[in-house]
């Protein structure tokens, strides 16, 4: 897979930096994840089909595209907005390109397919409050492509919860809010877990950030210093919205939690994604890229030098390599599933499967801590290939037997 730094778009962006800063900027650039539209659509459709089968939702369920409240409510309104009073949460989406319109298209395709996942009855976004009451709606499912900080999702859910009727249903445990997002940062996932608004969250990918990127402490500090020093506009923050240091973008748009060095359009600066709009050139060069840290690099970063230099790793099966990479990653301290997903560049469902396998082998415990068996496996993988001989010395002389047996 071609790295962003090896593309025309990436090389033009790297020219913004001095030769001394360019290696640090290159690490930052090659840590970005760019998801293509087919991957987004297929991932969301799969989740919409699978969630009901897991028994997490009660029927019937209302489907809603997560929306930016500022686009739905008058800007001079001082009171906190209330769904179905100040705005309709399922109002028609703008036909202009963007993530909201894309999500609306996914929901339309899902509804048009006629699927009733595990017999679950879905309700259209434009359903009125009276119909929700008449049909006894039991779940509200918010759908989005990416959650960087979680702010928008929680604000939208709060506006729904402020409706007196829905508030009454929630107090009697008659209705729950759920979220399906293609990607979310670790920070957003933690906020969702702590929020009483959401009863369930389903995510396909864990989105990388400065916090979870597989960088050493020295590299992370150098990248932060570079982003802060090279910020040349007040429009974008040095480490993105909420100072979260986002490293995820899609073919649709660049989230506002990307560092300013990627977005700023000041004089003398070549942006990677100008004004958060992905150009056809950037789409061609960058979209679809998934950063992955090789096992040898991970081993070196965490101090397992003998393992990282062992040529036996070249001959391991991919699944065995993934299992070993998890063991090496957590050998000092347990990590969350989303942190491991970022390191391996794998969907969360695959990480769950790998962790289940390691637990079956008793190499990790339920808290994702490494066991004695897991440490023994790491030690075993440090041993190099054995090269043996019978100790014979070659000779060009013709062999003649000297006795019969």
Number of strand segments: 7
CATH topology category name of the largest domain: Rossmann fold
Q: Please give the radius of gyration in angstroms.
A: 26 Å
CATH architecture of the largest domain: 3-Layer(aba) Sandwich
Distance between the termini: 63 Å
How many domains would you count in the coordinates? Answer: 3
Q: How many helices in DSSP terms?
A: 17
User: If you average the pLDDT, what whole number results?
Assistant: 87
Sheet with the most strands, sense and barrel status: 5 strands, parallel
Outline the low-pLDDT stretches.
none
The fraction of residues in strands falls at: 5-15%
Order of helices and strands: HHEHEHEHEHHEHEHEHHHHHHHH
| Spatial strand sequence of the major β-sheet | 3-2-4-5-6
Tell the overall outline: globular
Helix content: 25-40%
- Which structural class should the secondary elements be placed in? alpha/beta
CATH class placement of the largest domain: Alpha Beta
Write the layout of secondary structure elements.
Elements (H helix, E strand, L loop, with lengths): L7 H7 L7 H8 L3 E3 L1 H17 L7 E5 L33 H14 L9 E2 L5 H6 L4 E9 L3 H11 L2 H8 L4 E9 L1 H9 L5 E7 L10 H13 L18 E3 L9 H4 L16 H7 L8 H7 L3 H4 L9 H12 L7 H8 L3 H13 L11 H9 L25
Helix pairs in contact: 2-9, 3-4, 14-16, 15-16
